[in-house]
């Protein structure tokens, strides 16, 4: 399989994100403050595609979904379904390992107000595509509509053919499978858009589709 292309620690492909990162390096010098790499099984059966690092979550710790509410729900669900081993302690050195799955964000750098621009999503898509090409996974779980669109772009599919919907399964043109979930953000759970049971159901669907 091809090697995975990843952004450099001082990546400047997206000027706004690079400027924001430099600001945070001064304000928050103890944070990771760099493009956050993928995390999980190096030979996964399915990929979990997120949006972007949170300012005080993955941007702080350097591991996807680690250190914020979204990670609390995500990793609890993975542990509950037997897709992770160990204890999630909101630290990259907590010893947690993933089984059969891997997490990668569509945008690797933290964006201001947690909102990457369409141009930034397109620019960073090359790294998501590289992760997909280097992986044996043929099942993908997209967390939110933006991650859904980014995954389709990386997979070479037309977005117009596959409409986002929670727990919706999309059988792609080459036999791969994309499953959607609402993003496991605090906002979505606080407003009732997503419940832990709903999230677990979507994750379980991806697990089953991947043969795990």
Characteristics:
single chain; 212 residues; alpha/beta; Uracil-DNA Glycosylase, subunit E; six-stranded mixed beta sheet; two-stranded antiparallel ribbon; 8 strands; globular
How would you briefly describe this protein structure?
With 212 residues, this protein is of the alpha/beta class. It has helices spanning 15-27, 58-61, 69-80, 118-133, 145-155, 186-190, 196-209; strands at 39-40, 46-50, 84-85, 97-98, 101-105, 139-143, 169-171, 177-181. 35% of the residues lie in helices and 14% in strands.
Descriptive report:
- The chain is α/β, with parallel strands linked by helices.
- The chain has a single domain (15-209), classed as Uracil-DNA Glycosylase, subunit E (3-Layer(aba) Sandwich).
- It is 35% helix and 14% strand.
- It has seven helices and eight strands, in the order αββααβββαβαββαα.
- Strands 1-5-2-6-8-7 form a six-stranded mixed sheet, sandwiched between helices. A two-stranded antiparallel ribbon has the order 3-4.
- It is globular and about 45 Å long.
- The model has no long low-confidence stretch (mean pLDDT 97).
**Count of β-strands:** 8
For the sheet with most strands, the description reads:
6 strands, mixed
In helices, the fraction of residues equals 25-40%
Number of helical runs?
A: 7
Helix-strand category: alpha/beta
């Amino acid at each position: 399989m091809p090697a995975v292309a990843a952004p450099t620690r001082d990546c400047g492909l997206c000027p706004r994100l690079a400027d924001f990162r430099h600001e945070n390096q001064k304000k928050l010098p103890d944070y990771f403050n760099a493009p956050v790499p993928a995390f999980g099984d190096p030979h996964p059966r399915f990929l979990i595609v997120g949006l972007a690092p949170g300012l005080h979550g993955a941007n702080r710790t350097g591991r996807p979904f680690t250190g914020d509410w979204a990670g609390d729900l995500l990793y609890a669900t993975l542990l509950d379904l037997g897709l992770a081993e160990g204890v999630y302690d909101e630290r990259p050195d907590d010893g947690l390992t993933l089984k059969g799955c891997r997490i990668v964000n569509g945008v690797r750098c933290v964006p201001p107000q947690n909102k990457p621009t369409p141009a930034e999503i397109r620019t960073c898509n090359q790294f998501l595509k590289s992760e997909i090409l280097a992986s044996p996974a043929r099942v993908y779980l997209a967390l939110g509509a933006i991650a859904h669109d980014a995954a389709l772009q990386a997979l070479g599919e037309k977005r117009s053919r596959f409409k986002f919907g929670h727990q919706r399964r999309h059988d792609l043109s080459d036999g791969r499978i994309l499953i959607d979930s609402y993003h496991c953000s605090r906002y979505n759970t606080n407003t009732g858009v997503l419940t832990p049971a709903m999230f677990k159901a979507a994750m379980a669907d991806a697990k089953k589709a991947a043969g795990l």
